[in-house]
Amino acid sequence: MSAPEPMQYIENKTYDEIAVGDHAHLTRTLKPQDIELFAVMSGDVNPAHVDAEYAKTDQFHRVIAHGMWGGALISAVLGTELPGPGTIFLNQSLTFEAPVGLGDMVTVRVEVTEKFEKGRVLLACTCLNQDGETVIEGVARVIAPRDKVRRPRVVLPKVYLHVQGAQYARLIAATEDLKPVRTAVGLRIERRMSHIYVLDVPTYPKTLLITDAAINIYPDLAIKRDIVQNAIDLAFALGTPLPKVAILSAVETVNPRITSTLDAAALCKMADRGQIIGGLLDGPLAFDNAISPVAVAAKGIVSDVAGIADILVAPDLEAANMIAKQLIYLAGADAAGIVLGARVPIILTSRADSSVSRLASCALAQLFINHQPSTLP
């Protein structure tokens, strides 16, 4: 096991320790999520601030919007480095000299220029871009702390910015030039029908398919073969040429006492023999090893599927339904659903589904019918 990372601390400089000429700095690169997160926190949705194309035509607002980001960095240096924890802000005066663009690397520097009575300190504040050009300059007046503070540095949580329905908007847009599709009944074919959830999970980098959560309660091996093939066919129709299929269980090794591990091993061998085509299978895999590269690395699993799966095949309906519902209600996932294995796709939605989920389910059916896979009998 590797040694744990050493504890990092945050420490201030008291008024008595501060001398004229003391300085501190911080370097950050402006990323799209920085602007988006600032907009979320402030409620500022001015297109000049959040629309890169619009901002190109509005230089003044671009300076102000990104200058606010630079001002926040100045506050971070004053509050964490110099003087640091315990600092009381009195006022701050900044001039925005030049715009800051996405990808620009900004270095913030504060320097003590004067000390006054009652703990008051004046600091010069400057922001330079990667070319050494001044983008912000000004001064800040603070009351420096009297007492020494040294505490463990707080580890900030990861923030996931997710635009509701963004993946589905792309999905629906792909159907704009396609002809309307009729729906029908009397639909059974040789293939077993199965339900496939298509999830847009904020914390997962790509669309995630989960099956079967609605039709086959306790599928046997033959039915699971059809369930896997249906999911592969849908993933292929959605633009994934070789979908990675994780056959789920509770463990990563075959255990005769856990039937799902035996089925997983058999399905992988069936794929090797051409009984399942078009996908890359691996299993058994526990849920974390199917979707988390970190878990895969920790357990030393060597696999082309583990950690980056496109499709999750659950052992039974109960497991699939719970996985999907947990992602929807705990992880904020959007869910569309479709049934394959019939002569035509069947749109199957929940009474609790939103209108955008229902529309996305219709788009799934239209994309599938216009990209009919060759694996259908």
How is the secondary structure organized here?
Elements: E1 9-11, E2 23-29, H1 32-42, H2 47-50, H3 52-56, H4 59-80, E3 88-96, E4 105-115, E5 120-128, E6 134-143, E7 150-152, H5 166-173, E8 194-200, E9 208-211, H6 221-237, E10 244-248, H7 259-272, E11 280-285, H8 287-291, H9 293-299, E12 311-313, H10 317-330, E13 334-340, E14 346-347, H11 355-369
Parallel strand pairs: 9-12, 10-11, 10-12
Antiparallel strand pairs: 1-7, 2-4, 3-6, 4-5, 5-6, 8-9, 8-13, 13-14
Helix pairs in contact: 5-11
Strand content: 15-25%
What's the main sheet like? Answer: 7 strands, mixed
The ordered H/E elements are EEHHHHEEEEEHEEHEHEHHEHEEH
The chain-level mean pLDDT equals 87
How large is the count of helical segments? 11
Q: Remind me, CATH topology of the largest domain?
A: Isopropylmalate Dehydrogenase
Broad CATH class of the largest domain: Alpha Beta
Adjacency order of strands in the biggest sheet: 11-10-12-9-8-13-14
How many strand elements?
14
How big is the Rg?
28 Å
- Find the CATH superfamily of the largest domain: Isopropylmalate Dehydrogenase
Total domains: 2
Overall geometry: elongated
Helix content: 25-40%
Low-pLDDT runs:
57-65
**N-C termini distance:** 51 Å
**Structural category:** alpha+beta
From the coordinates shown, what is the CATH architecture of the largest domain?
3-Layer(aba) Sandwich
